[in-house]
Amino acid sequence: MSEKVTTQFYALRWIILLMCQDFEMPNCITLWDTLLADESRFEFLSFVCAYIIVSCRDVILKGDFAAIMECLQSEPGNITDVPKML
């Protein structure tokens, strides 16, 4: 990819902070509840990250570095319906 957007710029923050800076608190609590209830929580978190990346696919393919980062770091991929994502 010519924009050089690496996972260190977005996914590390998602995983370390368990999405608490990226989702609104009610969505965060729903996500945390699901993660903590799942025995495969770390694998599940990887799937959540992949879902967010796929939801930003069009911006990633066509946007510049700033647009890509904005899409990945603002309510990720414009996902506001976390229960539907889960």
Could you tell me the radius of gyration in angstroms?
13 Å
Can you summarize the main beta sheet? none
Give the % helix. Answer: 55-70%
Distance between the termini: 29 Å
The structural domain count equals: 1
Describe this protein's structure.
The protein is an all-alpha fold. It has one domain. The chain is 66% helix and 0% strand. It has helices spanning 11-16, 25-37, 41-55, 57-62, 65-73, 75-78, 82-85. The longest helix has 15 residues, at 41-55. The protein is globular, with a radius of gyration of 13 Å.
SSE arrangement:
Layout: H1 11-16, H2 25-37, H3 41-55, H4 57-62, H5 65-73, H6 75-78, H7 82-85
Helix pairs in contact: 2-3
How would you concisely characterize the structure shown here?
The protein has 86 residues and is mainly alpha-helical. Helices cover 66% and strands 0% of the residues. Helix 2 crosses helix 3.
Main attributes of the structure:
66% helix, 86 residues, mainly alpha
